From TrEMBL:
Residue ranges constituting the F-box domain according to the UniProt record: 22-68
Native species: Sesamum alatum
Entries under Pfam families matching the protein: F-box (PF00646), FBA_3 (PF08268)
Protein name per the record: F-box protein
InterPro entries: F-box-assoc_dom_typ3 (IPR013187), F-box-assoc_interact_dom (IPR017451), F-box-like_dom_sf (IPR036047), F-box_dom (IPR001810)
Record CDD domains: F-box_AtFBW1-like
Length: 380
């Protein structure tokens, strides 16, 4: 029986399963190939793109494969850490600096790193799924660290960038970058809002900016925004008593606000918000009791909160949270003792991540998961 007859016989046996020939593998059902390769890390798959044209097409253009790969990658999130280098790259233009981005797994081991020259220090460093945002004073970048792509977002020349949020809308398969800014530093202090949207797989430069009017609240804050289930949240002020949360529904593009949970007499020395298990959470640490309380927004419409977890952290003291995927059941807490603790809400167990072993200088990390989805335009 020749090769063609074998293929025909296999197709009859497999029924509706499409048979695909991959160099080095031979003929296998297409769904089996996707299932096998989608479990590999993005770094390995990037090398596999060079095997043949069929491998390259599958790993760079196949929407079904990329979606399946992301689902597996979510189970193994990575920390992304940035640091600035003074190695001479970009020295000719003093406004440019070299940034090194390092990926670290949940065991504290370095999995990848690369360098990029950008226009100045980063003041906002946030992620959403597989992509990250690096915002400088006058320039803005989208980064897919898995494939070492960094793309500058088109923006008005010499226009300063202020408060940046980043989110994803599954219903329309698009990312949205939200920029809030003061029209001027005099007058009523109202903030304008503009949104840059781009579709997954179409490239960042295929997107465009558009204004959505003024934000009804002031959201000038040092805290990074978080995106939970298609809504971006910002802190509205720095004090506990008057503290509330600004909300922007990315689908409706409408603003609202939520008060922080009532804390009665308990005083928190540490207070942040985060997305966990598809819900907005406020995390407060009581130094007196050495406990960390997790308030969850139980009813978004009626804006009601409830304490769902109270975790004993003695003798550790939290310094800040590392924002995680909003579907995660694990919370990452950076401690004053320079430990990173991963606490599972499901199993109620914790483990230490030794991510300082690979770091000479430190900046707050963000969390992402691997993806092969390009952010360059397909024509580039």
């Amino acid at each position: 029986m020749n090769t063609q007859d074998k293929v025909l016989k296999a197709e009859e046996h497999m029924g509706a399963h499409e048979m695909v020939e991959m160099k080095g593998i031979g003929y296998l059902p297409r769904d089996m190939i996707i299932e096998i390769l989608s479990r590999l890390p993005a770094k390995v798959l990037c090398k596999c793109r060079c095997v043949s044209k069929s491998w390259h097409d599958l790993l760079t253009r196949d929407v079904e494969f990329m979606a399946r790969h992301i689902e597996w990658s979510k189970q193994k999130p990575l920390l992304l850490v940035r640091r600035y280098l003074s190695d001479g790259i970009g020295e000719l233009n003093k406004s440019k600096i070299t940034i090194e981005l390092t990926s670290i797994d949940m065991q504290g081991d370095v999995t990848d790193k690369f360098r990029e020259v950008i226009d100045g220090p980063v003041h906002t460093f946030v992620s959403c799924g597989p992509l990250s945002i690096l915002c400088c004073m006058y320039s803005l970048y989208v980064c897919n660290p898995s494939i070492h792509q960094v793309v500058r977002v088109p923006y008005r020349a010499n226009s300063r960038l202020y408060n940046i949020g980043f989110g994803y809308l599954p219903v329309s398969n698009e990312y949205k970058i939200v920029h809030m800014f003061y029209h001027s530093f005099v007058g009523n202090g109202k903030m304008g809002c503009e949104i840059f949207s781009f579709k997954t797989g179409e490239g960042v430069t295929s997107g465009s900016w558009r204004g959505i009017g003024d934000c009804p609240f002031s959201a000038w804050t040092d805290e990074y925004p978080v995106c939970v289930n298609g809504t971006i949240y910002w802190a509205l002020s720095s004090g506990w008593k008057d503290k509330s949360i600004l909300c922007l529904d990315l689908e409706k593009e409408e603003f609202s606000s939520i008060s922080y949970p009532i804390h009665e007499s308990k005083k928190y020395s540490f207070l942040e918000y985060i997305g966990l298990m598809c819900t907005l959470c406020v995390v407060g640490f009581s130094a007196e009791a050495s406990t960390m309380d997790i308030w969850m927004l139980k009813d978004k419409k009626n804006k009601t909160w409830a304490i769902e977890y109270s975790i004993n952290l003695f003798p550790l003291r939290p310094k800040f949270l590392v924002p995680s995927d909003d579907h995660s059941e694990e919370i990452l807490v950076h401690m004053e003792q320079r430990d990173l603790i991963c606490y599972s809400l499901k199993s109620k167990t914790s483990r230490r991540i030794g991510y300082y072993r690979a770091m000479k200088t430190y900046n707050k990390p963000c969390l992402y998961y691997g993806s092969l989805i390009p952010i360059h335009s397909t024509s580039s």
